[in-house]
Design goal:
About 55% of the residues lie in helices and about 15% in strands. It has twelve helices and eight strands. The longest helix is centred in the N-terminal third of the chain and has 65 residues. The chain has about 350 residues and is of the alpha+beta class.
Length: about 350
């Protein structure tokens, strides 16, 4: 029995059966294009939504960063203008150091701007990755490990930076302050987040890492004390000396520019030392920070002139030790006479070497 197919069925069968001709590859390409178009058509909405979300996140992050940084900058500029305005007044000139406040505010502003940029841009980057359906767990774990490694490798740098930040925020010292940092002392000429620059008493500039500073002694905050010791002879009238010193202090407190540098009247504390031929009178005065050495020199000058005018004599200066040694008996350092100095004495003859037997026989 013979079966004959219709022309349409034969054409369909020939198209479905692979053969050496090109229609098969053309059909595969058509199917792939159709599938790709369908996949794009199905996902283009998701892509568009994700793209718009990423664009919106970036725009919001950039705008927010710009606004916050500009706000911080305006706030720092306003603080500097306020300090500059107070600098022109009499009280402001005593209590406000414009350069110190300016550097402190600039450092704080730099830290705040950096922290704001890091937080905003880091949050935006993580949000973009979450929109792209990227698993953040391995990334955060790797970042944590890298952060620990960097922290161990750069722990000194991190310590210096954090110490500098807290020093500035707490206003422990500033430009123009006289400080004792343990490793060095001097006048602060620059305060940074990592290094503090000091000018020592001999003019040397010291660069001190903030992380190495374990203690700070600020000699320019609050007030300072000018202490003077007056040594007078023990036979002088102490009450007259007290009145003379008090009068010299009152006269100094009324003169320029000491009336601004002396914050309290000069006070005679009393006797700090009593010896057989001398007594020491302690004098103290509360002064403006950093002005104690100058006040002490001027106070000594005025006290000396006042005591001379009042007839109160200072204690004589003790003689140096060299003069005492010369005045002593010159024979005190001589040794006792020795019998060995005489070559004919029995002691000297006994020390001569014994002659050999051959020489003795001759």
């Amino acid at each position: 029995m013979f079966w004959s197919a219709s022309p349409a069925a034969a054409a369909h069968l020939s198209a479905a059966t692979p053969g050496p001709s090109g229609p098969t590859s053309l059909d595969d390409a058509t199917d792939k294009a159709t599938n790709a178009a369908g996949w794009v058509q199905e996902n283009w909405g998701t892509w568009l939504t994700s793209g718009l979300q990423i664009l919106l996140i970036i725009v919001i992050a950039v705008v927010l960063r710009h606004v916050i940084r500009r706000t911080i900058t305006k706030l720092i500029e306003r603080m500097n203008r306020t300090v500059a305005a107070a600098q022109g007044t009499a009280l402001g000139g005593l209590l406000v150091n414009a350069e110190r406040r300016r550097q402190r505010s600039e450092a704080i502003g730099s830290v705040l701007r950096s922290v704001a940029s890091f937080v905003i841009m880091g949050t935006a980057a993580l949000t973009v990755l979450s929109v792209l359906k990227i698993n953040l767990a391995p990334l955060l774990a790797s970042a944590g490990v890298a952060g620990v490694a960097i922290g161990f490798g750069a722990r000194n740098l991190v310590t210096d930076f954090l110490s500098g930040v807290f020093m500035i925020l707490e206003d422990q010292y500033g430009v123009g302050d006289e400080i004792d940092a343990g490793v060095a002392n001097g006048t602060v000429i620059e305060v940074g987040l990592r290094v503090t620059k000091l000018r020592g008493p001999n003019g040397a500039i010291w660069y001190i890492r903030n992380g190495e500073v374990k203690r700070i002694g600020n000699l320019s905050q609050g007030w300072a004390t000018a202490a003077v010791d007056v040594v007078i002879a023990a036979d002088q009238d102490l009450e007259r000396a007290r009145e003379t010193i008090t009068g010299a202090g009152e006269e100094m407190s009324k003169a320029e520019p000491w009336n601004e540098q002396l914050w309290e009247p000069v006070e005679v504390l009393g006797l700090s030392e009593v010896h057989l031929d001398t007594v020491t009178i302690s004098v103290s005065a509360k002064t403006m920070p950093g002005k104690a050495p100058g006040v002490e020199r001027e106070l000594r000058w005025r006290i000396k002139r006042a005591l001379d005018a009042a007839g109160v004599h200072l204690a004589p200066r003790p003689a140096p030790e060299d003069e005492d040694e010369e005045a002593a008996d010159s024979s005190a350092g001589m040794g006792a006479p020795s019998a060995l100095n005489n070559p004919l004495s029995p002691q000297s003859l006994a020390t001569n070497p014994i002659a050999s037997p051959s020489k003795m026989g001759k």
